[in-house]
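Problem 12. The chain below contains 322 residues. Write out its predicted structure in token notation.
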Amino acid sequence: MARYLFRPKVEGARLALGDITTKTEELIHLRWTFKQRRARVNTGKAQVAATQCHAGNHPAEEAGYFEVPGAHLYTVLHGVANPTARVLLVGSFASERHLSYIPWVRWARYLAARSVECLRFDYRGIGESTGVFEEMKFETWLEDVALLAQWLKERSPEAPVILHGLELGALLAGKVFETGVGDGLLLWAAPRTANHVLRATLLRRVAPDNAFKYGGDRKSSADYIKQLESGDFLEVGGYQWSSQLWQDSFQVELPANLGDEASAFPVHERPVRTVKEEKLGAPLIKGSSVGYEAINRDFSGLFDDNFAWIVQSQAPSQGEPH
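Solution.
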């Protein structure tokens, strides 16, 4: 970079006022450009070398990017030395991601502190991952789950890998599990179809959109659905839903034998646990209500119970579902 950014004009012993103004603007622009370039360099370095951080007494957390076809998935590995098991956390859908973010991170840290390594991530086109959301399909996100599960297993094949999904993530994890991937499956609030998730998310948009609107200016959920069914895009929670995504959501179903733990084990010969929606609550599902309880809810009972299942399900003498 040049030592001098500009050299002002001199008229006798005085600077021209117009030149000072112009050159000052140039200096500000050059400084801003330099900061932007430096930021891009720092961002590039952060993407090449995973960022390591420590949260209190929790094991190391490594943030990085995992390459998939045409994109990179943002991942955070809650690393553990000699883990007893590994868990792939398959999170909720798009605009629901930020609502469940804090308890999802707490759950990962809870497990890592107990020697269970965890990997959480953003789907392609969502959150911090690259890719264009409008171009994504459910098949794309199923591939994300399968590739990350394979990577986790390859880290140390002797450690079992549990697929753990929340809402839409439960459905995706279940479908990947059905193909033979994973040593166990933990489902939280699994929907019957992907459309159940999209429809519930859409319904939560109606009330805020109609605030301070009256008469013909107000829209019903049927109006939004009609817009999607007509082939138009619809913005929901900062994401542009395509008509194709809406139509495909009806066909993405939770495998029938995964809805019941007792019937799942004989079919898959691997442990399966399902936790119903009513046992979770805000902010893990369906957004959060107003109040401290919804923002900083105590999930210790839920965490303890599900951690115990993970340990028991992978015990050598499992034989039957727990």
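Discussion. Residues 1-56, 287-292, 318-322 have pLDDT under 50 and may be disordered. Students who got a different answer should revisit the alignment rule from Section 12.3.
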